[in-house]
Amino acid sequence: MTTVTVKSIINGNSYQFVDNGEPKSGTAKNVYFSPDRKYVVALFKDKQDFNQKERLKNIVTKYLPQIQNKEAGNYYLEEIYRWPTDIIEYKDKTGIVVPIYNGKFFFKKGYSSNDLIKGEEKNGKWFAGSKFRNKQFPLSLDQSELGKWLNYFQVCVNLSRGVKKMHQMGLSHSDLSYNNVLVDPTTGSACMIDLDGLVVPGLYPAEVIGTADFIAPEVLATKHLKKNDPNRKLPNRLTDLHALACLIYMYLLHRHPLKGGKVHDLDTEKDDLLSMGEKALFIEHPTDKSNRIKLNQLSKWELYWSDITKLPYTITGPYLKELFNKAFIEGLHNPMQRPTAEEWEIGLLKTTDLIQPCHNANCEQKWYVFDNSNSPKCPFCGTPHKGTLPVLDLYYQFKPSVWKPENHRLMVYHNQYLFQWHVNRNIARNEKLTPEQKIPVGYFTFHNNKWVLVNQKLNFLKDLTEDKLIGINQMVELTHGKRLLLSNEDGGRVVNITMANK
Amino acid sequence: MRRLPVYLLLDTSGGMFGEPIQALNNALSGLISTLRTDPMALDTVWVSIITFNRIAEELIPLTEIGSFQLPEITCPQSGPRHTGRALQLLYDNATRDIIKGNENQKGDWKPLLFLFTKGAPNDKVDFVNAIPLIKSINFGAIVSCAAGYLKDEDLLKQLSENVVHLDSADTHTIKQFFKWVSDTIEQGNKSQGTGESVPLPPPPAEITLVI
What we know:
The structure holds 2 protein chains of 2 kinds. By secondary structure, chain A is α+β, with helices and mostly antiparallel strands.
């Protein structure tokens, strides 16, 4: 065991790493820890050519400060990315310095039956498939590792933001997969790793076509062509969007959107290439049902989540249904149609406003999305909703005295909070929110058999139906047909209340 | 869904008695543990173990990694090595086990075969006769590992393009070989290059690879 000191090729800063002869070895790099375990030094196994080094230099000297100096820089660098911070050289090998992963991305317990993976990294694959969630599977994950359904929305929001930010900077990831994303469902966190292969179109081309399950259909369909063939499709921003949609679908539904029962060729390799490439077809396509999953050919551990009649993708709610349609029906073979990362972020966040707690204390998912029906029930355990359910539709002022719907609905549940981003359309619910904006402005509660909104911070909350101002620390009852003005400032919204499940 | 069947053919003839069989057990349990901590492998890999000395035996039928229970592998103090019989048994088992694609069902991935042997087959005629049967199964890769001998390697080369030669059958080299086996099994889930073909991972440094 020796401690090695290396120097930055950019500014001469020095770093140390411990060489115990057995580094953590990935596909392209060997990873060594610093003595204080605050960062790692990852040495490339292959000699990096001029272009590759230029790419790394840009990642460290150009794109890193771009993130640091913009809004929410801390959020991105602490939470979402493990972004390389420096480049070193050691014995004619190139290496990068990367901050260490946050402790939450290592299993505290791992499998429920033994300690085999305790302390290992939480590769996204553990949480994408359904096998490890099945308690009967001998190597299932402990319940304490799995999180609840709502946590996976947060995971997907973080992931979408990570992709959004890269695309805003003109970069594409090019190899987005569960191998390159660490996930912690218990806190709803996602962290993108191995960011040294970023693609800048025209400047730094893709070196990989991606990882099986996430390679876009057009990339697979043209894989046989030479790299310089004009028809050859290589990873870019739009193929990232395919991978992102697949990841979101898998984290919410624990099955792959394209892996159905349709056979295209008797040869396994050819069949796989066609079914993920040229002939790819959404397993839940509403009219072409030829690629439905054949449950009798499935691993018994995967049956629960693979039954699309019991858990269709529409359980993710109306906004995500639209986005999945765009990603896997309209945009599957038409990349320009794919939803952007920001659309996913907004759709996911709006969906969390539709989410309801399940009344069954033993429900494994605990949350479900309101299905716009008059008699809602949890799709996971079948428990019907008890009692009335206030539905708040948001409206914005189009011009004086004309209010238009936002296509944004807020479902109320006991002890739910109201936030600034519901009150005012000029406040976007994203990573740029200030701490002040994250404080609730009111809350909903079921009190003495009535649904009420308690005003905590709204300066101008008005019951329009009864023409009455509701002061701070006062409450207003929610009744069918009632309208409330949440703010008289520019961008202030009106809500219209409907009572469901009466 | 698609499985990746992996067949391990392990020499348990008299020549393995002593340190080699201990080293093999050790390396094998390392291999299974590695696969049991890999979510991709747990999703697709099914393993069968066939051992051979005078007789060939299906020690473990094709079993998914998640349910795999590894027994202690033992060998007699002396006795011949009937590699040909093992190949014959492998052929029977593989034709029985592997799901072939048809119009209504997706087939398994091409199976992988790893043959670990400490010496030349003692049943050369059976061995040679079994080779076309094995080829007919269309394995994705066949890797033979010859530990501690160089003689008669031609025979192994008729079976597989890849013959890995270990200088000795001690714990360290066998472990290195099985590390390479797990890398090969896990290969399919890594990022794919923009080039045309996916190569086998490079073998560990101490091993001579005969191709």
